[in-house]
C-alpha cells in the first residue's frame, strides 16, 4: 500500500510518491520543491548594491578626472600667457641694457591636484557591500546544503522502503 506523501502544509495535491511513481521521480519532485524554497534574491540584491556603489565611485572618479583635465587646460593657458609675459619682460630687460634684475616666480600656486583620493567612507561602503554579498552567499549556501541533506535523507528513506518492499513480496 502506498502511503500519501506528507508536506509541511499537509498532503501534496499531486505527488509522484502518491501515485506510486519510481523513486527517481519522487526524488526529482522533492529536489524541485527544495530549490523553489531557496531564494537567491538576497544574494542578487547584495551584488546589485555593490555594483551600484562601484558605479557611484566610477562616476565620481570620471567627474574628478574631467575637472583635472579642465584644470590642465586652464593651466596650459596660464603657462602660455606666462611664457609670453616672460619673453616680453626679457626683451624689456635687454633693451634697458641689463639694468634690471631678473625675477621669476616659482609657480607653485599653479600646481595641479594629484590623483583622486576617495573618502574613506566610500571604501568602507564597498567593504560593507562585499561583506553583505558573502554573508548572503553563505546563507544561500547553508539553505542549499540543508535542502540537499534533506533530499539525501529522503532518498535513503526511499531506498530503505524499496528494499523492504522487495523483501515483502
TrEMBL record:
InterPro entries linked to this entry: DUF632
Regions annotated as coiled coil: 65-92
Domain DUF632: 3-53
Superkingdom: Eukaryota
Keyword Coiled coil: yes
Pfam families attached to this UniProt entry: DUF632
Keyword annotations from UniProtKB, A to Z: Coiled coil
PANTHER family with a match to the protein in the record: PROTEIN ALTERED PHOSPHATE STARVATION RESPONSE 1, RNA POLYMERASE SUBUNIT BETA, PUTATIVE (DUF630 AND DUF632)-RELATED
Name of the protein in question: DUF632 domain-containing protein
Lineage: Eukaryota, Viridiplantae, Streptophyta, Embryophyta, Tracheophyta
Amino acid at each position: 500500500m502506498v502511503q500519501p506523501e506528507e508536506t509541511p502544509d499537509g498532503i501534496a495535491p499531486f505527488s509522484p510518491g502518491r501515485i506510486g511513481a519510481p523513486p527517481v521521480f519522487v526524488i526529482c519532485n522533492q529536489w524541485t520543491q527544495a530549490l523553489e524554497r531557496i531564494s537567491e534574491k538576497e544574494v542578487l540584491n547584495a551584488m546589485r548594491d555593490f555594483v551600484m556603489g562601484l558605479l557611484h565611485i566610477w562616476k565620481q572618479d570620471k567627474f574628478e578626472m574631467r575637472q583635472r583635465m579642465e584644470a590642465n587646460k586652464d593651466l596650459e593657458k596660464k603657462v602660455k600667457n606666462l611664457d609670453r609675459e616672460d619673453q616680453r619682460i626679457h626683451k624689456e630687460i635687454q633693451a634697458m641694457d641689463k639694468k634690471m634684475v631678473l625675477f621669476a616666480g616659482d609657480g607653485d600656486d599653479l600646481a595641479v591636484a594629484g590623483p583622486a583620493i576617495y573618502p574613506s567612507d566610500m571604501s568602507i561602503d564597498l567593504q560593507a557591500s562585499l561583506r553583505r554579498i558573502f554573508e548572503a552567499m553563505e546563507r544561500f549556501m547553508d539553505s542549499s546544503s540543508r535542502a540537499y541533506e534533506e533530499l539525501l535523507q529522503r532518498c535513503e528513506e526511499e531506498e530503505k522502503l524499496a528494499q523492504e518492499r522487495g523483501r515483502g513480496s
